[in-house]
Design a protein that fits this description.
The structure is a single chain. The strands form 2 sheets. A 6-stranded antiparallel beta sheet has the order 6-7-1-2-5-8, with no helix packed on it. A two-stranded antiparallel sheet has the order 3-4. Strand 6 (73-77) and strand 7 (80-86) form a beta hairpin. The chain has strands at 9-14, 37-43, 47-48, 54-55, 64-67, 73-77, 80-86, 90-94. The radius of gyration is 15 Å and the shape is elongated. By secondary structure, the chain is mostly beta strands.
């Protein structure tokens, strides 16, 4: 993929939720919620402070993260659906 976010932005590939509940009920597309979990595929260089120093980001490529329901901007780049958001929109990293 030919995309590199700037500064404190990251690109996340959303992970779709299961189409069935644990009880076996199939969830139709109209009832599915927007994904709030994804895998980081690209990160920017970091947050630039007022004095010009750059603070590196905590997340890295490959991390699985949880983000806000309405966070970021949806993009389609090279056929991939991505969410581009600031690192501050991320609630946490899932430790595996």
């Amino acid at each position: 993929m030919n995309f590199k976010p700037l500064y404190d932005r990251i690109a996340v590939k959303p992970i779709e939720q299961d189409e069935k509940t644990s009880g076996g009920i199939i969830i139709p597309d109209t009832a599915k919620e927007k994904p709030m979990k994804g895998k980081v595929v690209a990160v920017g260089s970091g947050h630039r402070q007022e004095d010009g120093k750059v603070l590196p980001l905590e997340v890295k490529v490959g991390d699985v993260v949880i983000y806000g329901k309405w966070a970021g901007t949806e993009l389609k780049i090279d056929g991939h659906d991505l969410m581009v958001m600031k690192e501050s929109d991320i609630m946490g990293i899932i430790v595996q």
